[in-house]
Amino acid sequence: MNSDAPSSFASALSPATDPEPSTAPALLAEIDQSCRAPVLALFGCGLVWLLAGTVLAELASLKMHWPDFLADTDWLTFGRVRPAHLNAMVFGFASECAIGIALWLMCRLCRTPLRFAWIILIAGVFWNLGVLVGIGGILAGDSTGIEWLEIPAYASPILFFSYALVGVWAVITFRFRREPRLYVSQWYILAALLWFPWLYSAAQILLILQPVRGTVQAAVNWWFAHNVLGLWFTPIGLAAIYYFIPKVIGRPIHSYYLSMLGFWSLALFYNWNGMHHLVGGPMPAWLVTVSIVASVMMTIPVVTVAINHHLTMVGHFHKMKFSPTLRFIVFGGMSYTVASLQGVYSALRSVSEVTHFTHHTIAHAHVGMYAFFTMVVFGCIYYIAPRLTQREWPSASLIHVHFWGTAGGILLYVGLLSFGGVLQGLAMNNPNIPFLQIVALTRPYLIIRTVAGIIIGTGHLAFVINFAWLLARQFEPYRGPVPLILAGTQPVK
Amino acid sequence: MIVWLLFIGSLIVLPGSALLALRWAARTGQLEAFQKGALQIFDEEEPVGQMTDHFPGPDRLRRPKPATTGHGSRGDEKELPS
């Protein structure tokens, strides 16, 4: 090993001491080449967690209407499978892919290659180790029992160490930017990178390491759980939408002013939203009321973003027929509007009296986490992966199966479960209806949920096969014509 | 005790960091000529007006015809900020 390596490495962490400074914007091919190994590794591992999470989801869904299914195996009981599903999706699939997307976008927008990519690879190894230990712990019965924070205390430091590497590395990449002007996506990504460690560490301290007492636990729990979606996944999802819609259709965003208004209003209002999950609970009334007001104020960033995206797309909707990225991203963007407006009305006391503790809430969570964020992640991977591998996607048919399976499946899931949830809530508010009769009322909706899950799972399987096929293709010499997707931008080896 | 430390820390650190970010943005010209920021993602390699994603395969029918005016186009080139 070169003896100068440590000092060179240290000096290369700052633009002021960088031994090989460069101010010229990097070529897109150079940036993609630098991101290739870490981003593909993050996507690949994320998709393995997607499949694992899908299987766990199906098991949990089956048990809702077939409680005897695998009930004799303790590690496959509902109380373990369901949180294992949630954490596999949130920390295994979604967070890992979000990190890959954020890093690639940051490099592209900063017009600088990813420096010392091996550090991100190490971070990826530790992240997967943390998720594996965490989910193994949940299945073994070590869940903390705190929603969205079920991963046992012994696995969390591994995740935090890994995240610290990623967060610091993204900031260093930002410092080396060769494009002085910031794009709105960079505001969202930098904010998300700051907000996530704050959320995760505060929740870990207040709920796991030195637990607060009484109902404050519920307040902190919902502050964390709601903000993980709103201040971690949402900013990265919106950053991707703001980049990919204009990029794919070749048209600048309709209004940059609106995009910045959307960012700052999200930053101002979202953090207060979590307490609306505690309507009717033993909490100070003012705390819940402030949360409801902030939830209604979220109409501002949501409508702002929706108008901006829609006016950018007007006249270009027909391009969704030709672009897989655009299909998934636009579906995700529309779902963001639906999820957020659904969140606004669900926060109202009069609505919450009916929908709280029902399957309506489960449907709402899936509109946000799946129909919005996951679909955006799929769209991003369809755009990024061919550029990293320098190969076209192997099968258009598998892309169609993926899109129609996931889009159709989630629409079925959300539509019927929302409706069934309202019926369930109305019945629960009627003291003349026996509880077992309400359970029987929800059963058909739960069976359809399982069917919807199978349809979604088919889409996931098609996507993973296509992705694995794409990865395998990059090791073969390319003999075909120049892929249209790369024509005029990058050399094909 | 730790709750108060976190609470007061959050009250100072989070608004403080937002104010610092806003000050930095004002100083570095991020808040000037706002609409130009929308063009930042385009360059010579991937210019405005060029669609950059489509289904795989050599079949040119998988791409829309180049936009001109009329149906399906709003004449992007004319909308660019000067």
Helix and strand topology:
The complex is a heterodimer of chains A (493) and B (82).
Chain A lengths: L4 H7 L16 H38 L12 H33 L6 H23 L16 H20 L8 H26 L6 H34 L6 H14 L15 H13 L1 H15 L10 H24 L1 H7 L3 H31 L6 H33 L6 H39 L20
Helix pairs in contact in A: 2-3, 2-4, 2-13, 2-15, 3-4, 3-5, 3-7, 3-13, 4-5, 5-6, 6-7, 6-8, 7-11, 7-13, 8-10, 9-11, 10-11, 11-13, 11-14, 13-14, 14-15
Chain B lengths: L1 H26 L48 H4 L3
How would you describe the overall organization of this protein?
The complex is a heterodimer of chains A (493) and B (82). Chain A is mainly α and 493 residues long. Chain A has two domains: 25-181; 236-474, Cytochrome c oxidase-like, subunit I domain (Cytochrome C Oxidase, Chain A, Up-down Bundle). Chain A is 72% helix and 0% strand. Chain A is built from 15 helices and no strands. Residues 1-6 and 488-493 of chain A have low confidence and may be disordered. With 82 residues, chain B is an all-alpha fold. Chain B is 37% helix and 0% strand. Chain B contains two helices and no strands. The longest helix of chain B has 26 residues, at 2-27. The interface between A and B is large, with 60 and 46 residues.
